[in-house]
């Protein structure tokens, strides 16, 4: 059905947001990066477009809520291991991100997350099985 996903996130300071995510370990595609937006590579055919707020407003007539005060959704990414989950959260914290909670271990699924500099919530999960029916 779909070939790729692009999650678009408005950010207050594009340069600071890019530096934050580079510190976490993500790369940016120079073909989709300029002073208005930055195309962050999350995996094969998975992208987050960090858009300067003024530019992001050209796509919608709606207001942007402050993600530090309101949640309208969040990004959830799968990881290869529990260790990868913990390592990414640790890098985000070291780069200035906020870690709002403790890791969650549901047996078949382990998760933890962080908030980026703008307050967007990023959840990271490792699935080691399926829940029992």
UniProtKB/TrEMBL annotation:
Concerning InterPro entries, the annotation shows: Glyas_Bleomycin-R_OHBP_Dase, Glyas_Fos-R_dOase_dom, VOC_core
Which residue numbers delimit the VOC domain?
3-127
PROSITE patterns according to UniProt? VOC
Q: Write the protein's name.
A: VOC family protein
Which organism's genome codes for this protein?
A: Pelomonas nitida
